[in-house]
């Protein structure tokens, strides 16, 4: 902190859609003493300021969604601070419950499954009992998951957060996303091995989905972190 301005140096990797954004919530280290969590402060940073550079990261599926953001002597006014100094970790945990728990993922999972079913029909694979069984099982799983989402979110009053159950939803949604997209690859069979930019659009989309789904158990907090939160907060282990 210099006068009423914070001078920021460093970088943040994996910033989704930073190239479309003009603001970013950043958790910055403002102190090296005491508990590590207490040395973090939240800021709303103007990404158009001098001292900000956004470099693209192209993911395994060929998409540009994530970025690395670099800060070089970026000047951030005290007024851009969210909450008090050292409250960043608390604020981050609060925001993460919304990221993890309010995605309403079931609709998106169901639409992926429908697309996969369409490809299976086109390729004549719907008669394969194993494929039909997998489709049926995932349909039931997604329906159950949707009920869980409704049960969890409907009692959340405005102004309240979903609580640690958000980790259950995040974990289940990410595993269902991986299982669903993996079924798409199974249906394509050897065709999936030919994935590159020139492959027919549907083939490319299903393979791209399966590759990108690998990240689902990492972003928003890795699966093991969700399991730890569930064990500590819900199962009280
Ligand atoms: C596609 C993508 C998009 C992302 N978008 C954003 C974004 O927009 N904004 C943002 O801030 N971040 C974003 N991230 C970063 C993401 O939130 C982190 O990568 C994620 O939380 C994992 O943290 P980490 O990379 O530090 O790995 P770590 O947490 O260090 O995990 C590394 C490995 O160690 C394991 N591990 C860690 N701790 C424990 C433990 N206590 N017990 C058991 N195992 C453990 C993990 O399971 C994992 O296998 C994104 C990441 C990806 C891949």
Bound molecules: flavin-adenine dinucleotide
Overall outline? globular
- The Rg value, from CA coordinates, equals 21 Å
Number of discrete helical segments: 6
Q: Element order, helices and strands?
A: EEEEEEHHHHHH
Give the beta-strand count: 6
What number is the mean pLDDT? 93
**Category by helix and strand content:** alpha+beta
Largest sheet: 3 strands, antiparallel
- pLDDT < 50 stretches: none
Distance between the termini: 41 Å
Order of strands in the sheet with most strands:
1-5-4
Strand percentage lies at: 15-25%
Helix content bin? 40-55%
Description:
The chain starts with a strand and ends with a helix. With 237 residues, the protein is α+β, with helices and mostly antiparallel strands. It contains 6 helices and 6 strands, in the order ββββββαααααα. A hairpin with a 5-residue loop joins β4 and β5 (64-77). The strands form 2 sheets. The protein has a 3-stranded antiparallel β-sheet with strand order 1-5-4, with no helix packed on it. It has a 3-stranded antiparallel β-sheet with strand order 2-3-6. The chain binds flavin-adenine dinucleotide. Residues 14-16, 66, 215, 218-222, 224-225, 228 line the site of flavin-adenine dinucleotide.
